[in-house]
Amino acid sequence: MILPIYVYGSPVLRKVARPVEQNEEGLDEFIDNLWETMYHSDGIGLAAPQVGKSLRIFVIDGSPLEEDDPSLKDFKTTFINPEIIERFSDDKTYEEGCLSIPNLREEIVRPEKVKIRYYDRRFNQHEEEHTGIAARIIQHEFDHLEGILFTDKLAPLKKRMLRNKLNAIAKGKFEVSYKVKVAK
């Protein structure tokens, strides 16, 4: 089922998400819905808070960016209860966007490499290191679980310059091809 994407101004996007229980009711169906919603919205990552669920889970399929980074060809994973164990230095700047902040893209600085521990959808634990665009996508989606949006990482002056655009998004004054939920 395709779920609506909650947009900037929705309180759920600012909450720290709660851990997922292994026997969480409806978990498999919810994961399937996350994937379906992400693909329908032309996203490469989607976190549970973005569809109104304050749960520590996100999905990523980096394959649409394979041309920019061939290592993303098979980068398709469900991350449950992820923990970023380490962020390595060598910060890089890259343009990011977000389904919850439609039609806005900005240059964001993030570490080039991360080590992450998480469970997959069968609750098998993994610990991996990722670099480049994969590390960036992971950090972006992980931030959603912490109630952080990519615009929070902008310099204060840049945030002030975007205030009117963000306020318009919060009021539903934008157009996208996917289903959204605007805060009331």
Question: What descriptive keywords fit this protein?
Answer:
single chain; 184 residues; two-stranded parallel ribbon; alpha+beta; Peptide Deformylase; 23% helix; five-stranded antiparallel beta sheet
Describe what you observe in this structure.
The chain is of the alpha+beta class and 184 residues long. It has a single domain, classed as Peptide Deformylase. It has 3 helices and 7 strands, in the order E-H-E-E-E-E-E-H-H-E. The strands form 2 sheets. A 5-stranded antiparallel beta sheet has the order 2-3-4-5-6, sandwiched between helices. Strands 1-7 form a two-stranded parallel ribbon. The chain is globular, with a radius of gyration of 16 Å. The relative contact order is 0.22. The mean pLDDT is 96.
Number of alpha- plus pi-helical segments:
3
CATH superfamily: Peptide deformylase
Mean pLDDT comes to 96
C-alpha Rg (nearest Å): 16 Å
Proportion of residues in helical segments: 10-25%
What order do the helices and strands follow? EHEEEEEHHE
Based on the structure given, which CATH architecture is correct?
Alpha-Beta Complex
Number of β-strand runs: 7
